[in-house]
Amino acid sequence: MPVADSDIVKALTSYMHQHPAETGALMPLYDAIRDHSSQGGCLHENQCPLVKAAALVVDEQERVLAFSHRTWWALAEGSPLPHDESMGAAALRVLGEFAGMEGVWAVPGAEDPIAVDVIWAAPEEGHRLRFGFRYLFRAHSRALPARLVASGRARWVPIAEIAPRLAERLIARMALPL
């Protein structure tokens, strides 16, 4: 079993307290976890919400790390695994798998997700919602292996080029100038 349901509920509850306007969109995940707990397992016929974790990495020049994904740039995102201690740890592990980066650190006081995105899962993942927990980390730009940049698989992008909601959250969380 990946990160315990209680760990997901902890992250979700903390996030909903900080962003109460998003509670309605997040309740399907909370309800599914509650159902699993009360029923002793999943009875949702493979339509349970998918939970993903991603590291939102900002370098010393206030740029965000992005990875090439099909025709757009995205965060490295993956599912929590049994050995992950938390959702934030899952995000950091996924980053390591995608980029082989070392020297990435958590921002003190930013242990909770900076955002939780709710979208429909890709068709190959079934007809269900996907909840993407985004965690904030810092790194020096040189921590990104040059081979990833040279191959076009990764790059540092200005905050203004990422999704507006994430950019707003980053600016507010890090007290950056607009």
TrEMBL record:
Entry-linked InterPro entries: NUDIX_hydrolase-like_dom_sf
The protein's name in its UniProt record: NUDIX hydrolase
Organism of provenance: Streptomyces inusitatus
